[in-house]
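hey m, so remember when u said the tokens were messed up on ur end? i reran from scratch. heres the input so u can diff it against urs
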Amino acid sequence: MITVSSAILDPLMAANPAGPRITYYDDATGERIELSTATLANWAAKTANLLRDEMGAGPGSRVAVLLPAHWQTAAVLFGIWWIGCEVVLDGSQADVALCTAERLDDADATGAGEVAVLSLDAFGKPVPDLPVGVTDYATSVRVHGDQIVPERTPGDALDGRSAADVLAAAQASADSQGLTAADRVMSTAGWDTADDVIDHLLAVYVVGASLVQVANPDPDLLDRRRQNEKLTRA
């Protein structure tokens, strides 16, 4: 069996490890961060090692992801899949939860025994004043290794769907959108549901394209961004 992460990241690494894979903008703050395929894979591996070694996650574990569309969320998703866990997006019961500080109550509602909070800060600042027993992602993830051996017997991958089903749906979505490896896609869409993740993230990567993800989009910046980022789809 193969994981979603291996099926997507391995071909991307073989084709172009140094090329841009996700470029993240927040137009409200002026933030711009770009990750190559190799850097995204390293962050995903660090996340996988954190989840497995510190938080006890493994095949069959359900991991609630209560995060916005963000470059760190992409790393979290691929990290979860690399160790054979299931991503849960609807706030239902989970063994582990990853969330922002604003969604700690939602994480508690999942019944997760382990919770990690992401600041999503561009410079990796920790979250202040976390409750006792809650893990600060930025502080903890940096000490973990950036290589991972993919799980050989993964469980479900995404809200009850197997890895094979998720990959097939991503390919079908890419085909219906007409995406190709030559595309550089700008998106302002969220990743709040399984279909969102498939259509707005995995469909881009399954064909080898790259993603420019924009939060709080400023319409006045679109034309300049289209030129600067060499966008082919928006």
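this time it looks ok to me. The two ends are 34 Å apart (CA to CA). if urs says something different then somethings off w ur setup not the seq
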